[in-house]
Design goal:
alpha/beta; globular; 10-stranded mixed beta sheet; 12 helices; 37% helix
Length: 331
């Protein structure tokens, strides 16, 4: 017996259409990259002194961002160092920067403009304090610098911040007991070789190219600083961010001649503010961590960026975007 024709009601037709659209939508979702749009626009990254580690790191990070976030334009601006970097980001003159934890803490403690809006993205690597003298120098400890010409970094540099604290811990006043010379790492080696200065302080990742090159061209020594850590901590304030550290013997082989040097170190942070969009911050933080090996091949200190410690951005609260990234990669 022939079957009666199937009657298609309006209701069944509608349900069939809806089901078809759902299936089509799922297929489209599976086949096409419909995830969140990548950040776009323009950001400014404040780096550091010319040819210094901050500047080199910034240039390499820009290349990584250009690769990972092609719709985001990055402008790099040089600076004298940590203090100027913090001020720029806090006041909206830059969106991201690298700064030492002590400079950030001092800026906060003085309640400078925008201090409450500062946020951390990642703990990057440690800066090592380096006091460089000629090998024949009579300087064996910081107190021996009394009456000498000493380069302490630019006025807005993180080097000066630490140098002044170290001199104070050694019983010296930078404005009375030494002749301070306000030049950066690009000029310090030449000034030491020419006799314009007797010593210079530098704070940077290991090795710093300028110090390494100087050590290979001229007989120099690194003066120990580690014995002052307890006195620095006793000062309180931002001095608590300095920790005892050891420069390995192979940091500057020609200068150290097989001997490690006791010194102090301070963490560097990737800094932004709560004004920066969380999605943008999450993406930049991801690129910073993912590009560690690539950047570290050219900036040795960057090899020390570690996912397990990157979240510790004290004294800064972690930015919400950075927090999202760390949650997404948490095992």
């Amino acid at each position: 017996m022939p079957q009666p024709p199937l009657r298609v009601t309006r209701r069944s037709a509608l349900m069939g259409s809806v089901a078809g659209l759902v299936v089509f939508g799922l297929l489209l979702w599976w086949l096409l990259p419909l995830g969140e749009q990548q950040p776009r626009g323009q950001v400014t990254f404040s780096t550091g002194a010319r040819t210094g580690v901050y500047e080199r790191y910034g240039k390499l990070l820009k290349r990584a961002v250009d690769r990972d976030l092609p719709d985001l334009g990055v402008t790099l601006t040089g600076s004298q160092g940590s203090w100027e970097n913090v001020e720029r980001v806090a006041t909206g003159k830059a969106d991201f920067t690298i700064a030492a934890a002590d400079a950030v803490a001092k800026y906060q403690s003085e309640d400078q403009a925008g201090a409450g809006q500062l946020r951390g993205c990642a703990r990057l690597y440690d800066d090592y304090m380096q006091l460089v003298v000629e090998r024949s120098s009579s300087v064996r400890k910081v107190a021996d610098l009394r009456g000498m010409k000493v380069a302490v970094g630019g006025r807005s540099s993180g080097v000066r911040l630490i140098a002044e604290r170290i001199l104070k811990a050694a019983g010296l006043d930078v404005r009375k007991d030494v002749t301070e010379v306000g030049i950066g790492i690009d000029a310090m080696p030449r000034a030491l070789e020419s006799g314009e200065i007797d010593a210079f302080f530098w704070s940077g990742g290991l090795p710093t190219n300028h110090v390494r090159d100087l050590s290979e061209d001229a007989p120099i020594r690194l003066v120990e600083l580690g014995s002052l850590v307890d006195k620095l901590h006793a000062m309180g304030g931002y001095s608590r961010y300095y920790r005892a550290a050891v420069m390995p013997a192979d940091a500057y082989p020609a200068a150290q001649q097989g001997e490690p040097v006791n010194t102090l170190a301070v963490a560097n942070l990737l800094v932004t503010t709560d004004r920066v969009d969380p999605e943008l911050t999450e993406a930049v933080t991801r690129t910073v961590i993912d590009s560690r090996d690539h950047i570290g091949a050219k900036v040795h200190a960057a090899q020390l960026v570690d996912l397990r410690t990157a979240v510790y951005t004290n004294p800064l609260t972690l930015h919400e975007g950075a927090r999202r990234y760390y949650r997404s990669v948490k095992p």
